[in-house]
Amino acid sequence: MDQDENALKHATERLKSYAAQFCALRGNFRHFPQIIEETGVSGFDGMLVDIGVSSHQLDDAGRGFSFMRDGPLDLRMDTQSPRTAADIVNTADEPELMRLFFEYGEEPNARRIARAIIKARATRRIETTLQFADIVAAASPKRGKRHPATLVFQALRIAVNDELAALHDFLAAAPRWLKPGGRLAVISFHSLEDRIVKQTLQHLSAPFLDRPEWPEPRKNPDCVLKLVTRKPVQATPQEIEMNPRARSAVLRVAEHLPA
């Protein structure tokens, strides 16, 4: 399942020899219960979710996901969505831009960058990735090897695609669709995503809950999983050598408890 039509076409072509065992469905994974119900499937032995932007999206300048090559400031995973990154950059006020960059990008220079954007768009609409990256770079000193616009692009992408809310929605629904012994595996690529996955799986796998104001721990009514990975699984040096983009990948797995 993917909301990007190009991803579905690529997967269908690559797995055409397994056509009898493979089904490509279009949609955001936050809506998977409604989409899956239409297929007649009632539950899963396993669910694998690979969150965030794909290599195909990053490598296609026309999608606007990378500031390493010029393209439209788009950043939509679903090209049918109405709002682009350019829409946000050119219409949001300074407090909103600052909030997005700080909350979704953890960008320490969020205020300075937001002010620079407001000033730049007053004379000319911001339309392309390189134009936007240059504005951000001029307002934010370079730190180490990372480009100054890296965290701001991450924040914009998350905002355009409502990624964190979509992840919350998915994790809230997923356990109900796992069969007893079925496993949920989630791959995330930055700390905001991983924090949500970690905290959710910890809560859903805790037999008891405790608070200072309670006289004793209470049974957790939401406990339906057990953790398979106590610590996150990360790519080995050999994997990173083959695929450098795997260096930030974090895998967490949980298993549905027997009925």
Give the CATH class of the largest domain: Alpha Beta
What is the H/E order?
A: HHEHHHHHHHEHEEEEHE
Q: Taking Cα atoms only, what radius of gyration do you get, to the nearest Å?
A: 21 Å
Q: Residue share in helices?
A: 40-55%
How many beta strands in the DSSP annotation?
Answer: 7
Q: Specify the CATH architecture of the largest domain.
A: 3-Layer(aba) Sandwich
Q: What is the distance, rounded to the nearest whole angstrom, between the alpha carbons of the first and last residues?
A: 27 Å
Describe what you observe in this structure:
- It is a single chain.
- This protein has 2 domains: 5-55 and 164-256, Rossmann fold (3-Layer(aba) Sandwich), CATH 3.40.50.150; 56-161, Putative methyltransferase TM0872, insert domain (DNA polymerase, domain 1), CATH 1.10.150.170.
- It has 11 helices and 7 strands.
- It has helices at 5-14, 32-37, 55-59, 85-91, 94-105, 110-121, 129-139, 150-161, 163-173, 191-204, 237-242, and strands at 44-50, 178-188, 208-209, 218-219, 225-227, 233-234, 250-256.
- Strands 1, 2, 5, 6 and 7 form a 5-stranded mixed sheet that branches. It has a two-stranded antiparallel ribbon with strand order 3-4.
- The model has no long low-confidence stretch (mean pLDDT 94).
Topology at a glance:
Blueprint lengths: L4 H10 L17 H6 L6 E7 L4 H5 L25 H7 L2 H12 L4 H12 L7 H11 L10 H12 L1 H11 L4 E11 L2 H14 L3 E2 L8 E2 L5 E3 L5 E2 L2 H6 L7 E7 L3
Parallel strand pairs: 1-2
Antiparallel strand pairs: 2-7, 3-4, 5-7, 6-7
Helix pairs in contact: 5-6, 5-8, 6-7, 9-10
